[in-house]
Amino acid sequence: MRTFPVMSGAVAIAVLFGLLAPAVGRGDPSTPGAHVLVIFDHPENFLDIRDRYFATDFGENEILSVFREYITRRAAKYLPEGYAFYIGFTDIKLAGAYPLWGIQEYRVITRRDPPGFVFGWAITNRSGDVVKKGAERLQTFAFMELYGCNTSEGEAFYYEKAILDDWMRNNLQF
């Protein structure tokens, strides 16, 4: 069984704000998604962002782009106007695994291999004051029962999006 390293809340936020400091203030606040910033800290070290042995349909950059776009779009729906959400991932594990035998082109998704995310996050109000922050190790073996995310079953990374959407719905609303 693999475990995720979890940074303490203070360290994760310090890392997150250290990465975000140059980006704060960029963009037009009236632009959709301008108040959401997603950072992937050293994705080449992530547990499972890409398979290191077999070719996949998505490369590392495409996978990260899918998550960045999804989080940017969905988080903006949960935040009050003028608030900003910053999230910095330090690890990602996709749902399922490649079988050790047979066809290696497809991930087999079972309850034993849930998606997982390790990240630090913060929300700032209109004045730029931090109103919520934390460090998360997000993983649940009940990921196949999560419904209500803004995706269609069969869509790429459906379960990963469902677990992220469930977390955002429970943590970003005021």
What report would you give on this structure?
It is a single chain. The protein is an alpha+beta fold. The protein has one domain. The protein has helices at residues 9-20, 60-78, 158-171; strands at residues 36-40, 84-93, 116-124, 130-139. It has a four-stranded mixed sheet with strand order 1-2-3-4. Strand 3 and strand 4 (130-139) form a beta hairpin. Helix 2 (60-78) runs parallel beside helix 3 (158-171). It is elongated. The model is unreliable at 1-13 and 19-33 (pLDDT under 50).
Provide keyphrases for this structure.
alpha+beta; four-stranded mixed beta sheet; 3 helices; 4 strands; elongated; disordered N terminus
Residues in helices, as a percent range = 25-40%
User: What's the end-to-end separation, in Å?
Assistant: 36 Å
How big a fraction of the residues is strand? 15-25%
Number of DSSP-assigned strands: 4
Put the structure in a nutshell.
With 174 residues, the protein is of the alpha+beta class. It has helices at 9-20, 60-78, 158-171, and strands at 36-40, 84-93, 116-124, 130-139. 26% of the residues lie in helices and 20% in strands.
Task: Furnish the topology, listing elements before pairings.
Layout: H1 9-20, E1 36-40, H2 60-78, E2 84-93, E3 116-124, E4 130-139, H3 158-171
Parallel strand pairs: 1-2
Antiparallel strand pairs: 2-3, 3-4
Helix pairs in contact: 2-3
